[in-house]
Amino acid sequence: MAFNIKEISTVIESQIKRYGQEVVQSEEGTIITVGDGVAMIYGLDNALMGELLLFPHDVYGMVLNLEEGLVGAVILGNDTLIKEGDKVRRTAKVVEAPVGDALLGRVVNALGQPIDGGGEIKVTKHAPVEKIATGVMARKSVDQPLETGILSLDAIIPVGKGQRELIIGDRQTGKTAIAIDAILNQKGKKVKCVYVAIGQKDSTIAQISEKLRKFGAMDYTVIVNAGASEAAPMQYLAPYTGVTMAEE
Q1: What pLDDT, in 10s, does the model give residues 168-187?
Q2: pLDDT tens, 179-208?
Q3: What is the pLDDT of residue 94?
Q4: What is the mean pLDDT of residues 112-137?
């Protein structure tokens, strides 16, 4: 059998060029069923609870159910683009949200992606959206007031920094107005605000954003919007994302 020296040299040359390159390994699964924003995937045996998955058309998903041989994931986006038989890739990362001062003044979705048309947000740090909260004994006690700007509330029901306060009431009774007034009153007080809107109309969020921007409050505020048109998993994730950004 005769050897072709030219072919052998070509193979050796190509191997030398590829030497030292990293081997990219990705684990893929196949969608068995999909519907109502939930997909069952076969083949992702090493998937983690809460891990971020990449579906076709740059749609993301989050693992919420681990079974023998199957993984259940909620689709964080338009599930009409996903069909049975599509391939799903692991990202080997839990669901994270961007954090930091670069988010101030922006409107983002439940994944921290900008939706205000202002371009990419350049952040240097991400934090997991699901993590164990700090214990009560390890937290700093509430020792500073947080004025809402509404005299009757500040006098009768004072709110402190680090305190949780529920605003409850029927529709059109002014719950949002109280929250917006409280944000506007923080101007010049070195307080950063995160407003999370779940299930509201996009036009309402646009009006709130414009009002905050008009009075200069967007300089220290982030709006996380999971509107009425968003998928249910995005609305589920929105409060976790907002708390993650606020804790940072």
Answers
A1: 989 889 889 999 999 999 99
A2: 999 999 999 898 999 999 998 898 999 999
A3: 87
A4: 86
β 193-198/221-226 pair status = parallel
What single string gives the DSSP state of each residue in 198-214?
ES--HHHHHHHHHHHHH
- Of the candidates 92, 109, 52, 126, the one whose C-alpha atom is nearest the C-alpha of residue 235 is 109
Instruction: Sketch out the chain's domains with CATH numbers.
Output: 28-94 (2.40.30.20), 97-247 (3.40.50.300)
- Chain centre distance of CA 172: 29
Q: Measuring CA to CA, which residue among 180, 235, 192 is closest to residue 100?
A: 192
Instruction: Match 């905050």 to its residue by tokens.
Output: 212
| 151: its two tokens | 């005299």
CA 139, 140, 143, 149 torsion: positive or negative?
negative
What distance in Å separates the CA atoms of residue 7 and residue 189, rounded to the nearest whole number?
A: 73
